[in-house]
């Protein structure tokens, strides 16, 4: 009798253990964890990380996370089963500077970091042996670099082929110098450049634009071709070869370089214009209204903005266009910057800052990067629903330095900003949770370096000296950020 009772107790104990264990496993599989402090099951949270480089070591509160957590579908790590609370997350890789943040994990949700970028401790450089190189300008398809030299009294413009690493001079003159407020512009077809210059003679000091064919090295002064004085703001047509637009006496013209006698008046009494994929935009005077025009001048213009910017004391505005719904206006005299934004929630014509040096939209138009000598900002023109969530019409101060900031530009993922300051090239993330990680990419030997990002090839081009004693600048490149692909290839 005793044996039979013992068997029954043993049997029902096993049944009870089975149901308890099964329930625990089901709860565990559903993401629940038992809290001994509270004596209850709590729905766990998780952390998702997509890093660059892809092969990294991850620790949470100094404990390593298994590499088996890598999800090969989207090259990300998913760390689940974490009780709600704060964790110290650290991501590292041999030869790279470590990234870290204090992370808040919430019940039943994943805290996501889709744009973790690490910078190497040291980047190997490629030199292009461009002795005495000054400012340089990358062609649109990243095949060539146009760079300036000053040899004695001679002003030179050279073309560097990035395939062969060979250079040749395409323009030379002792009477002109580069206009520091403008850039050499490559044609979309990479066959010609526009060189904005000023005369060196202080009594003349007039602006001249030279158009140079890089194959024939033939240079044409646009003033002679257009039969016009006081030419300003020359830009290539984005689709038609050998067509340019320019301002003279506040009037906008389109000119066929092959048939200059057929130049066409596009708009009158304007201040500033910009060409984008959606059309030609200009700032009409005296109204201060932005219009979109047909680049060929065959259809009537369309009014875009409904009111002028708040500051019309000076009407010298630079227009930065993403599309007809997102336009930034930068006053080149007062340095005030305004945003025209027909958003998903409301329409805005807002002053963003009283002091800005430049502005760039992201590739999707959802963010506007702008900066001055000491600070970098990002304005969100649309809701950003990927973590960290940011809202339309939100303005963020990204970083501030006591030393002058220069060469500010987007990085390839548009969630980081590259810039130079204090003889260093740096990168800072937009993610403001806990703190912003900021890395030194490389140290420089010169106070002022010219920097350009090449997104298509994951490269940074910049000027520097080979040594402190070297009197000449050269153009260098480094690979940044790391190239990534499917399965880490």
In short:
The chain is mainly beta and 489 residues long.
Describe the protein:
The protein has 489 residues and is mainly β. The chain is built from two helices and 43 strands. The strands form eleven sheets. Strands 16, 17, 18, 19 and 20 form a five-stranded antiparallel β-sheet that branches. Strands 6-7-3-10 form a four-stranded mixed β-sheet, with no helix packed on it. The longest helix is centred in the N-terminal third of the chain and has 28 residues, at 2-29. It is globular, with a radius of gyration of 29 Å. The relative contact order is 0.09.
Number of helices: 2
Main beta sheet: strand number and arrangement?
A: 5 strands, antiparallel
Mean pLDDT: 90
* Strand segment tally: 43
Beta-strand content estimate = over 45%
N-to-C CA distance: 70 Å
Spatial extent as radius of gyration? 29 Å
Q: Are there runs of 5+ residues with pLDDT below 50, and where?
A: 23-41
Notable characteristics:
mainly beta; 48% strand; 489 residues; 4-stranded mixed β-sheet; 2 helices
């Amino acid at each position: 009798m005793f044996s039979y009772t013992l068997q029954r107790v043993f049997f029902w104990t096993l049944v009870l253990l089975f149901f308890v264990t099964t329930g625990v496993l089901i709860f565990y599989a559903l993401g629940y964890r038992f809290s001994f402090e509270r004596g209850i099951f709590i729905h766990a949270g998780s952390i998702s990380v997509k890093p660059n480089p892809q092969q990294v070591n991850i620790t949470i509160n100094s404990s390593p996370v298994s590499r088996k957590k890598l999800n090969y579908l989207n090259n990300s790590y998913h760390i689940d089963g974490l009780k709600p609370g704060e964790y110290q997350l650290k991501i590292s890789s041999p030869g790279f500077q470590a990234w870290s943040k204090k992370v808040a994990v919430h019940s039943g949700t994943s805290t996501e970091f889709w744009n973790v970028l690490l910078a190497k401790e040291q980047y190997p450089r490629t030199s292009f042996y461009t002795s005495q190189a000054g400012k340089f300008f990358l062609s649109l398809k990243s095949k060539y670099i146009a760079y300036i030299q000053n040899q004695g009294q001679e002003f030179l413009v050279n073309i560097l082929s990035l395939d062969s690493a060979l250079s040749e001079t395409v323009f030379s003159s002792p009477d002109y110098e580069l206009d520091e407020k403008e850039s050499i512009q490559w044609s979309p077809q990479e066959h010609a450049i526009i060189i904005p210059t000023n005369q060196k003679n202080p009594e003349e000091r007039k602006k001249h634009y030279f158009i140079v064919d890089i194959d024939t090295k033939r240079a044409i002064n646009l003033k002679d071709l257009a039969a016009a004085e006081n030419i300003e703001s020359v830009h290539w047509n984005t689709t038609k070869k050998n067509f340019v637009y320019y301002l003279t006496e506040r009037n906008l013209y389109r000119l066929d370089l092959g048939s200059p006698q057929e130049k066409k008046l596009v708009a009158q009494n304007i201040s500033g214009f910009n060409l984008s994929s959606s059309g030609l935009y200009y700032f009409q005077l005296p109204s201060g209204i932005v219009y979109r025009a047909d680049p060929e001048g065959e259809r009537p213009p369309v009014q875009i903005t409904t009111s002028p910017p708040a500051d019309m004391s000076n009407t010298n505005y630079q227009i930065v266009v993403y599309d007809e719904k997102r336009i930034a206006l930068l006053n080149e005299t007062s340095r005030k910057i305004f945003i025209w934004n027909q958003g998903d929630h409301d329409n805005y014509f807002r002053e963003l800052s009283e002091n800005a040096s430049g502005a760039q939209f992201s590739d999707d138009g959802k963010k506007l990067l702008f900066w001055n000598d000491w600070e970098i900002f990002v304005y969100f023109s649309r809701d950003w629903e990927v973590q960290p969530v940011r809202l339309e019409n939100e303005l963020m101060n990204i970083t501030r330095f006591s030393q002058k900031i220069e060469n500010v530009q987007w990085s390839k993922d548009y969630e980081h900003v590259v810039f130079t300051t204090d003889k260093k090239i740096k990168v800072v993330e937009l993610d403001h949770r806990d703190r912003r990680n900021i890395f030194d990419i490389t140290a420089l030997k010169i106070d002022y370096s010219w920097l350009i990002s090449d997104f298509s090839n994951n490269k940074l081009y910049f000027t520097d000296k080979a040594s402190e004693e070297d009197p000449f600048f050269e153009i260098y490149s480094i690979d940044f950020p790391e190239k990534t692909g499917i399965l880490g290839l």
